[in-house]
Specification:
- By secondary structure, the chain is an alpha/beta fold.
- It has 3 domains: 145 residues, no CATH class; 174 residues, 3-Layer(aba) Sandwich (Rossmann fold), CATH 3.40.50.300; 50 residues.
- It has 18 helices and 7 strands.
- Helix 2 packs antiparallel against helix 3 and helix 16 crosses helix 17.
- It is globular, with a radius of gyration of 26 Å.
- It starts with a helix and ends with a helix.
Length: 387
Amino acid sequence: MKELYLRLCMSSVFSAVMQKPLLKHFADYAKSTSTDEKIKAYAAFVAEIYAHGNSLTQLVFNLVCEDENVYIKSRAHKKPISEEISQAVRHEILNFQELAALTPKAFAEDLGVDYVSPFYSEKWDFQELYEKRILNVDKYGYGIFSSYCMFRLSDDKAIEPIISSDKTTIDKFVGYEEEREKIVANTVAFLECRPAANALLCGDAGTGKSSTVKAVANEFFDKGLRLIELRKDQLHHLPYVMGKINDNPLKFIIFIDDLSFNRSDDNFSMLKAALEGSASAKADNAVIYATSNRRHIIKESFSDREGNDVHVNDTLQETLSLSERFGLVVLFTKPNKKLYLDIVHELAKRNKIDMDIGELDVRAEAFALRRGSRSARCAEQFIDSLM
């Protein structure tokens, strides 16, 4: 164990992996001089495995794949790599492969005990699997983008994964097939490097606009699509985000949820620049998908129309035309009674709710009346209330 640890310590290309909790616990184990210390370190080592499932092999491989190092970035951008770096990668990956194949039995024998907390491990060819990921880096990605689908921008401008992201999938939706297909078709064109548009999903609340965008991201994760969500107050960071992902082999949806502006909003011009293709606010591998309850995005009052601008019509056109800069605008409207009940019936069927159709319809309509209107969200909430 100690000899393996020392070989891992010599990692240069994958040096950042050695700072991960799993490797730190293994280091504590290998360096411990007493059985008590080893047992505590082993317990922490297995606890880290359990936190990510049950497989040591899968966890170690994920850590290797998530590492954003000089080798994978050079391979992704087809830059020349020295033989020395290539040799180091081959040697280091074999060490991580050996770590990933360790068994509870090996630890038990090393500790001189009959039982240790179990975990799963197996023998994988890390070199072959890692090379496969590099050859398909436009689908797998590297760094944090290799393991997660959705990301957010933190207050300190770090792009961080959303660990418990929405797992909604397209096949879970009922209704709005025509609207959703427009978003899917545009996304497919984007992934195939064909002309694709920035998209605005607008309309009534509770109709599935945000869920549609997230479902599309989940649907095409294996095709190399990732989603980065920005709050409206973070739009001034848009050039920074675009710069961070510009040379990444993956494709990105920049997602802005519940978008609306006042006329004096400073973020208005930043989004406008991005939609118009400004070099500082646009990346070739990104599209902007936004949702809004307002068709024209801008909050407008009658006083705005009676302002003191000399050319008031020009000012109004500037503010109201932002939505027109989205190449694709998809309108989601409140469902009529038939669609609302169709959604209720399908959700009831999926959730195995055994109720007379007539009674179900009456109760569904009463539920919508109490909520103030029909919507897909209302139908889902009604079904949840029956479970």
